[in-house]
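Dear support,

I submitted the protein below through the web form. The confirmation email said the job was done, but the results page showed an empty box. After a refresh the structure appeared. I'm attaching both so you can tell me whether what I see now is the final result or a partial one.
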Amino acid sequence: MNISELLAGLQGQRDKTTARAGELRDQIDHLTAALAETEARLVDLATTRKIIAERIPPGAEPDPPETNTAYQAIVNAFNQHPGQAFRARELHELLGMPTDEATVNVTRSRLGRLVRQGFLTQPGRGRYQKRT
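What the results page shows now:
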């Protein structure tokens, strides 16, 4: 095999890998958009439920409490403490969630999504607060 054939083979591999990277980027963009839409829908549903629950006449039996998703628990914590800024680990301690690094990193990712969606702000590095 001469150098020209070797270089042509490498170029072919590079072209295939570049195309695959483009396909993966497209999939990531699609999944990110779908996730944002789904999370926004969850927030809309929680808001709708809250509004309807407020309209229940006094003395009426409320529905049994629903189980909270992690996002609902996070949003509820910020709603209960609207002026307070939290770090991800502090939020875990407040919510009684595990404080191992992997779990806290997942929450950091969730907090970042809530910032991008406009529900939270970042008043400082690593700190999150409800948007007012």
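Response: this is the final, complete result; the empty box was a page-load delay. The beta strands are 120-124, 127-130.
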